[in-house]
Design brief:
InterPro entries: DUF1918. This protein is mainly beta. The chain contains no helices and five strands. It has one domain. A five-stranded antiparallel β-sheet has the order 4-3-2-1-5, with no helix packed on it. It is globular.
């Protein structure tokens, strides 16, 4: 998985009833766009994300 600053990330719920989280990648800490990513989620909190199979990265629009 590769991403750039400004891309959107969606983390799908892992269990029944768990909601999806969405956020913006504010920093790419891996080499050449690889994880981990510092993400600012829609509820305002920030966290370091190592995306798994339950994640999708969507490119940002310029």
């Amino acid at each position: 998985m590769q991403a750039s600053v400004g891309d959107r990330i969606r983390v799908h719920g892992r269990t029944v009833g768990a909601g999806e989280q969405q956020g913006e990648i504010v920093e790419v800490r891996g080499e050449q766009g690889h994880p981990p990513y510092l993400v600012r989620f829609s509820d305002g909190h920030e966290g370091l994300v190592f995306p798994g199979p339950d994640c999708e990265v969507e490119g940002h629009l310029d």
